[in-house]
Amino acid sequence: MSSARSFEPVYMPVGVLTAALQELTPRERRDPDPDLAIEEWLEFARDLGAESIELSAALHPSLADVPPEAMLDPVANTLDLRDPFNSERAARVQASVASTGVEIADIGYFDDLLHEDPSIRAKKHEFMVSVMDAAVLLGVPAVCGFVGRDQSKSMDQNMIEFEQSFLPLLRAAKERGLQYRVEQCPMPGWTPGDNFHNNIAYTPATWIALHQICERHGLGDQFRIHYDPSHAILMGQDTRSIFQYLHDEGYDFLIAGMHVKGQVVDSKGVAGWGYGGQTVNRGDWVDGEVSSNPADLANSWNKQTVLCEHELPGTARHDPLAYLQNHRVDWLDHQLAARELLDIDFATTPLIVEHEYPPARVQERELLQPILAGSISFTRHIDRAAADMYALQHEVLAAQDIPIQGVGRQAYRS
Length: 414
Description:
about 10% strand; about 425 residues; alpha/beta
C-alpha cells in the first residue's frame, strides 16, 4: 500500500572561486601582508551571499614560469605561499572564517603538474605539497587542480608518467587525509603546439583509467573529479550524458566537487574550425617559429576562444535549442541529472561559481559585486528548483506510486 513521504528537498550550498577578483586586495597591500587578501575575500563573499570560497593559490608572479601576459586569466594567488603557511597564519584566517561565517570549501592550485621540464615539474609539485599543508592547517578536506601533460610524450606515455610522477602527490594527500580533486579542463592554450588536450584528466573515460591506476596503488580514495560543465560543452559533450556514463560504468562516486561555469558556443567558429579549434594564424607563431613575445603566446588560447566564450551562470540568454545542441549549459537539467545519477552528499557539496566571462571580468569591487551577487543568486535558485523537482518527483510521487509526467531530457540523445 502506498504511503505518504514528506517533501524534503536537499539544497546545495553555493560558493565562489576567489580568482573571480584577483585584485580585490591590491598587490601593493597584500604582498607585504599576504593573509589580508584571504580576510578581505571572506568578507566580500559574505556580502555576496556565498556560503564558502574556493581559495585560489598560485605561484607568485615573481616565481612563475609562465608570464602573466601569456595567460588567458591573470594569476590569482589569494593564498600566498612565498613564506610557510604556519599555525599562526592559519589561526588568523580561521578567525576571519568564524567572524564572517563563510567557510573555505577547498584550495585550488591549477597548474601543469606533468610539465616536461623536470626542474619546473619539481617546483610545481613542491608548491602543491605546500598547498596541501595549508589545507591541513585550515581544516579543509581537499585540494583542487589539474594533472597536466608532458608535451614531449604521447597520451599513452603520459599515463605512465601519471603513475610514476603524479602518484607521489596523491600519497602526500593520503598522508594528510585529503582528497585531490581534478578539474577536467583540457587547457588547449597551455602550449603553442598542436595538442588540444593538455590535461590528461579531461573526460570520463580517462578519469576512470586514471582512477584504476590509483586503485592499484591504494590511492583510489584520494583521486576525485571537480566537475566543470563548461569544459564538457567545449568538447561537444553534455552533462547528463557524462553523468550517465559514470553511472553506467560504476563510477558515479568520482565527482566530489563542482565548478559552476558555463560556455556559449559560437556556431560560426565551429563551422570555420571544428571542435579542434583554430589551428593556424593564431598569432602565437611568427615566421614559422614560436613567438618570443609572451603576449603573443596568449593567442594559443584561440584554439578555444574561436569556438566559444565562458558564461558566468545567469548572464546568457535562455536558449532551449542551444541546450539541445550542447551549445550552452542547461543549468536546471545539470542539477537534476546530478541528483538522479551521481553519488554526492548534496547538503555539504558546494556549487563553486567560477567567473571567467570576459566582458564582465571587471576588477573594481563595486562594479563586480552586483554581477557576482546576481550569478550566485541565480545558481542558488536553479539548484533549489532542481532539488524541489527531484524531491517531488522521485520521492513524494514515487512513494505513492504516482508516475512522473512526460519524457524529459535523455542521455546520449542530444
